[in-house]
UniProtKB/TrEMBL annotation, chain A:
The chain crosses the membrane at residues 484-499, 520-546, 566-584, 596-616, 628-649. PANTHER family: C-TYPE POLYHEME CYTOCHROME OMCC, DISSIMILATORY SULFITE REDUCTASE SIRA. Signal peptide: none annotated. This is Nitrate/TMAO reductase-like tetraheme cytochrome c subunit.
UniProtKB/TrEMBL annotation, chain B:
The chain crosses the membrane at residues 20-43. This is Uncharacterized protein. The keyword Transmembrane helix applies. It comes from Desulfoprunum benzoelyticum. Keywords: Membrane, Transmembrane, Transmembrane helix.
Amino acid sequence: MAKKNNGFAEQIDLTSFSWVTAGASPDVGKPGCGGCHPGGGGMEYDRDGFRYDERLRQNPELAASFDGDYFQSKWDRSGVVEADCLICHLPGYSFKERVKNLDMLNYQWAIVAGSGVGLVNGSVQAGETPKVVYNKRFFNDDGKIVFSLEAEPNSGNCLFCHGPADMLKRGFSWNDHGNHDIHNARNIKCSHCHPGNKEHQLAKGNENLSTVRDDLDGTMRTCKQCHEAGYMGAPKPEHRKVRPNHLEKLGCEVCHIPQLGRSSAFGLDISTGKVRLYPRSGAKKVGGELIWFPEVSMGLDRKLYPVNAFRPNLFTSKEVDGVYVPLFARELEKAYKTVSAQFKQEALSEPLISTTGEITVMLNALAATLKDNPRFQRVLPCYHRDGVVYHLDTAGKLTMEKDTSWAAELNNFNISHNVAPTGMALGSKGCADCHAERAAIFASWLNGKHEEGKQKLMARFFVDEDSRVYYLDQLHKYNAAKRYLIPLLFAAVFTLILFRESRAKVMPMPTLDRLSPSGMLPVVALLLLVRNVGFLFLACTGLFFFFNKINLIQIFFASPETAMTLHWNGGIVFVASILGCTVIRRLFFPKMNTAICHFGVSGGKVLITMMVLTGAGMIFRKQLTPEILYICSLVHTVAAFVLMAMYAAKIYHGISRKLYSLQGGEQ
Amino acid sequence: MGKPVAASHSQVNDIKKTFLTIGVAIIAVCCLGGVNAGLVLAGSKTCGSFFLRNSQGDVINPLTGENADQPFSSRKTCGACHDYDLITKGFHFQQGWEKISDTYDKKMPWVLSDGMMGKH
């Protein structure tokens, strides 16, 4: 969009007038920008707040000025595009007729054609003044019209715009057996999840790239809010096979949108000056049938979400102050036409210009055609793709460097529709749905590791944290072994302690009756009871977590979150009881050599300290990186199992010795 | 098998009451349905019937030929009952236009707003 105030024509790309039809292909039903934007706002009033048609009629000279609202415009004849309420509220609205009339510059007539209430004859584009012939069948005898409007728009009306737009952004479709959605199958409408208020502000989710009215982000109900409250009969999730920490790290969409059935646009190619959106590899066109697996990206809340990692290519010119100024489509078209014979579209899912030779040709063409363009202080054409920026040096040689400019920002479109039934969600068939080298969620990283394509992708990872997912999976590969190795460790420690105890001299466990009489004895007894019960509680909940016994957690604690909170609260109580014992010993029994709270095992203090530190870290898990959290969890688990093994061996040995002595043997 | 027993007077009254109740219920349902159908036939589910109006606010009446070749204006037609200016403040309509400015972004001066009208 051109600025309001411009000094010369070359500065003006799209005016608000040309914006309405920009990018339209009415022959195939493809709308221009103004097709989807329903009118009102910038399609009705200029940047000074005046109606375009009235102002241009009063000041016809504006069309010859460099005003970004009026330059070469025909508002006085086309009229303005008022808000078309019927696009959303009239079932059966003809979006195709709207697009067709907008393309003919019949701006104020588009609502008549779209609503189907009358025919529009004539075209402003052709220099005519259109005439309307209303269909009298829609009118009562008193001349009033009868429309069957819907207060809550039908999903079909939303899809006029969000169908094609979100198909290319994220492979979204609705009412589509080839790309189903479980909510769609349950007759849920767009407006159920995206209700509006009187001001027509519709509830939004969180979208990575769209920035309009970000203050309204997150105003719709989340998956959790609907499914935990049973809103509209939503089933309550149990997630019995899913480790609780996964629910902290993964957005619901990661598992519940495991694949899509129609190709999104994988990239945008503007090399010819016309936008070409190309499909994912394997699809014949954007929206064509293709089973594909979304990429995964970390959101602002540090959870992973599925995305379409869209890859646009861009041409800019680097200014003297280092700013990369994007080139207009018409500037690219002019350059492309001079060298078009040298290019051939090789692969459908690639931009036209991809080899270094082709890039060099195009950059040279741009340098030649932009030479006298007053828009630039300096002409230095650049080509941006996949985190790399290419330009020609003073000798005309192509150079490439890591792109740190705005052009390298990721274009990850969130995927939040086309939700699969529970039985198709990742994890429904077990951990190997994800934790396998060929599993879809990590395929884009692992499969490409040794392929040429990987290097191209890796450039993108310089500027984001997506690579964490890859490394995290490397750690997870050891998880399967952990379930066996740690119990083995337990058995080994247990055996070792038992062996040592059997050879050691008798060192009875400290008992209260060996202590000096004191009024603090009941307190000590209570603290020891709390400590032992705490230890037992921590051991049980810890084992539930380790072996992922969600069903037991739900029986005893209702939810994993509650169990986790109780676990770390239990840990605090356990540590407090030990500290309490220690303080009492120092204050009231200073002459005692043996700590009254001694576990009876050497190394207990070290292990408990390790567990306290790692456990404390995990209480604040949201502030930790996945790698640190994983290490904390591993250390905590190992220390817990060693401590449990030592304690179990001691108890076993003590009981055995007691039984043996009762049978008359020597201790 | 025992002999059939004739219904008592009170039983007959009960049966009459039951049929009467059912009858009243059926009539009530039919009336409600009829009212509903009437509403649908009389106009839309939400707006009833109304005059179309051109951009000057004049009535368009194709049956009398009054302004019958002119396009209708949503501002004047829908806006006769609804607050058009309030509604068009919604982000679907504005798309950043309410913030558009030549100096919106100093680092990227080609970005004029946060919406699709002016973002690129």
